[in-house]
Amino acid sequence: MLKHLVLAALLTACDSKKPAPAFEAPTRQNVPATPKLLLPVVAAGTARALEPPPLLIMLDGRGNVRVAAAATWGAVAKLDPVTGILVTDVEGLAGSLSIAKDHGETPAQTVQRMTNAGDTSLRIAAEEAKDNQPSGGTGTAMATANAQPSPSPDLQQQHADATGLLGDLRLFADSTGPGRRALVAGELRDVMKPSSAVVLPDPRVAAARLIDLLAETMGVIGVDRDGAIVPLRLQIYRTRQRASSTEPNVLEVHVGVTTLDPGLPALKLQIGKRDAWSPIDLLVDRDVNAGRLVETIVQLDQAGARILGLGLAR
Q1: Cα 197 off chain centre by
Q2: Measured between alpha carbons, how far is residue 52 from residues 47, 160, 166 in Å?
């Protein structure tokens, strides 16, 4: 027994004299992960992603906006979010998207143009868009505090024909009453039409920031479903001018951080009794984040809603 103890002590002493390793071999635990997009995660309410992806507008948790392009949706999932072009003149994005459409640019060409010219091209695009806009419009979501006149019935029908959307044209009716507080309106569609941009929001960013960006770009919202990036099936078709309506059936839903008013059970009952084309406006508190807004959109989609507006509660 004594011999065994002595032998164990000698072996321990020999081991203690071995030099420590110069470095730790890399393992899955200690290798930093490659930065990746963080998006709201959903289990329903998405549409088929049309290839190739449109212009990517990444909205990080601090509200910064970056623009990038990718050849496939699979490549979008692997995109490093900090490699996009930082855009400080968000107001000009709508004009830049308009230029891209007029010239038939691919998203990669649009990114290259913006890289070459910087925010200058965005400011010029915004000025051009403002010059071409009917009087009374401002071109920004933040400047829509005052209700703006709605298009004529002929323009309403042209818009519906051009977009293929069959939404209730009463959304565009002239009104002498107070305007709706929704800054954008969209339709939950089974088949999405191609969009000029997809907004990829960090779920922690303020929902108000996401709504403002949607108002500027009319993009679709990109989400994470089963590890793949796909668009939410909300197609924005109305923005810039504050929607006004004499329609008494506009239902306002107050979205808080953890609450809905009316609550979801009551909303499901009301949706079942309402005209499918009667709009429901989601009005969010300032402290509500994009993840919560997306969650609510999906909940109302599953409850049978068809037309949704997005705006601020106060």
Answers
A1: 10
A2: 14, 25, 26
Q: Taking the model in full, what pTM does it have?
A: 0.71
Distance of alpha carbon 158 from alpha carbon 176, whole angstroms: 24
Tokens of 62: 């601090």
pLDDT single digits (tens) 120-155: 445 444 444 445 444 433 333 333 333 333 333 333
Six-digit token string for 281: 């406006």
Pairing assessment for the beta strands 182-188 and 307-312 based on DSSP bridges: antiparallel
What pLDDT does 80 receive?
A: 83
- Say how far apart CA 265 and CA 275 lie, in whole Å: 18
